[in-house]
Write the structure tokens for this entry.
Amino acid sequence: MNITGIPTDSLYKWMALSGITFAIASTSIFLSKVYEYKESIIEHQAELEFISSATQLGAVFGTITAVTGFSLWYFKLQKHIDIEQAAKAEEQQIKTQMARIRLNQEKNNAAQIEST
């Protein structure tokens, strides 16, 4: 998995990660303005109220987008991938058990031939 790349394998993953990014960016914009005006918050109250409303809306939109994206990704894609992988693992386990049985049978047959 390429950690630095944008997820292009699923629109839902992209949606979820974009929502998280949007929510974090909105929150950090507000916090940076509060930090910038920490000495004179009262003088910049009108600007901070506007920024607060806009960034709250951005954070809510980002959170809703992220939750929707992750939900769609899990229920429409990942759930089915997990079931498919579990079936493949079970199939491989059965093949391994069958190979062990054949190997034991061959050992038993070889032992019987040697004893005769």
In short: Helices lie at 11-36, 45-115. The radius of gyration is 29 Å. The mean pLDDT is 86.
